[in-house]
Amino acid sequence: MDLFASSDLLTIPSRKRKSTDASSKKGSSSSATKSSKAKKATNVSVFEGEVLHDEEDVRARDGYPEPIPKRNKHGELMFKNCPDKDFKPNLTPKEVLQAGSFGGTYFRPIHSSVTGLDYNKQWEELPQDWVKGLNLRKQVYSSFYDLQVNENGAKCGGDLDMWESSGWIKKQDPYGWFQWYCRFYLGRRTSDDERQIKRWKNCTGPKGRWKNNLIGKIYRGGAKYNTKSISPVIRQVLLHWAYRLTERDYEARKKILQSK
Which of 127, 156, 237, 259 is the most exposed, having the fewest neighbouring CB atoms within 10 Å of its CB? Predict the structure, then answer.
């Protein structure tokens, strides 16, 4: 703004001088535009690292210390150096994305009120093997929620504004829980892990609200654990939290319900 104000105050005593000053004004305007763009660019975070295909290459690029988790005999993921032994999701980030999730919008361009930055192309941080075969524009970074993208054909979850106002978003992971999970899965460990794992447990842990809600609906409906017509919305919620209901988990909870 100062550059434009300075140009507007130039005096023009002659046609020749006018031509010169017009050029000067144009240069000032151009400089201001460049300065404005440069300032704006400092508020934009675009992934600028090397885009890599494999998990191990990404881990090396980002310096993550812990190994990729292995599954136990029940198909649950077991993480090393994990602050809570009950954190056992049964879906990898790749499986969540490939199944059809977040209406295709998770890694869309966003503005974060937590960091004050605009984010774009953050999906390029991921191992590209995770999104292989997907229509990226429709299934990964779409700005428009499409429930047909979702595995269960249902829309669920709040928007970023709601997550931020609820205090659920921290600066290190401005996109939220699933971004945290992608990085935790790849081996990152931070001081926010315990909080994020607690959120997962509240949703789908042993006493998880939404997992047990789904099991209750299935039990009362006399259906099988994998009957998709029983609460597709809750099934989609659980998918976003890296969990798919298993027969083992259903039967364990069913015994408790039968005893009541």
Answer: 259
